[in-house]
Amino acid sequence: MSTVRTAAAVVLAAVSAFALSACGPSEDGAADTGSTAPSAGATASGTPSKPAAPPKAPSSSAKPPASSASSAAPGSSASATGADYDVFPCSTYDVTFTANLAEPTTSSYLLKITNKSGKACRALGHPVVTFGALDGQATQRGEAPGIEDALRLEPGESAYAGLLGGAHDGTGKTVDSIALTMDTESDLEQKPLTASTPGLYVSPAVNSVTPWVDNAEDALSL
């Protein structure tokens, strides 16, 4: 009887041991398995990955693009146009004046001014001409250009105008001199320039003066 119990106990112990071994790995085995997992910083080959290289700083030799103001060529049309704004109308302080008889039968005279100053000026409109002691001034004949297109006189250059006294018709008077001032489109006071015109007949209905032009032929034919 005791022998049978002993044998049964041995068999039961063997079955229990087999059942325990079939339940899975031991706690030690589980810990060992976890310890062999690759670290987060390791590559697939087991070599730790390197951090990405920082971006390179811009080269100190790089030059900023030139500004449009500095790249503008000198002597451009803009600067030339700007320079014209500094050219003021000629006054009697800027010019010399002469009057020469061109046609005795019509008492026609060629008026000439020359820029004596050291800077350019513009001969605007018509000359302002008065006849000696006679009241009034010569009537304007022909259309003058605007101030933007007025004749520009560099130092030493001249402008011309034609003065017509008119034929002797018995209604006029004879004078021996004329006086001239310039149109400046301003209230600038000027000293009149005078010229001798012996025997100049002035008809009140016919006398006239042309605008300033750049040559004598046009001045007498307008």
Q: What structural class should be given to the helix and strand makeup?
A: alpha+beta
- Helices, by number, come to 5
The biggest beta sheet is recorded as: 4 strands, antiparallel
Strand order of the largest sheet: 1-2-5-8
Radius of gyration, in angstroms, nearest whole number: 56 Å
Low-confidence stretches: 1-52, 57-83
Percent helix range: 10-25%
Signal peptide: 1-21
Keywords: Signal
Domain DUF4232: 90-212
Region (Disordered): 25-78
Task: Give the key terms.
Immunoglobulin-like; DUF4232; DUF4232 domain-containing protein; 222 residues; 4-stranded antiparallel β-sheet; globular
Note down, in words, how this protein is organized:
It is a single chain. This protein has a domain at 95-221: Immunoglobulin-like. The protein has five helices and eight strands. The protein has helices at 2-21, 27-35, 68-71, 77-84, 216-221; strands at 95-103, 108-115, 121-131, 151-153, 158-164, 173-183, 193-202, 208-209. The protein has a four-stranded antiparallel beta sheet with strand order 1-2-5-8. A four-stranded antiparallel beta sheet has the order 4-3-6-7, with no helix packed on it. Residues 1-52 and 57-83 have low confidence and may be disordered. Residues 25-78 are annotated as: Disordered. Residues 1-21 form the signal peptide. InterPro entries: DUF4232 (IPR025326).
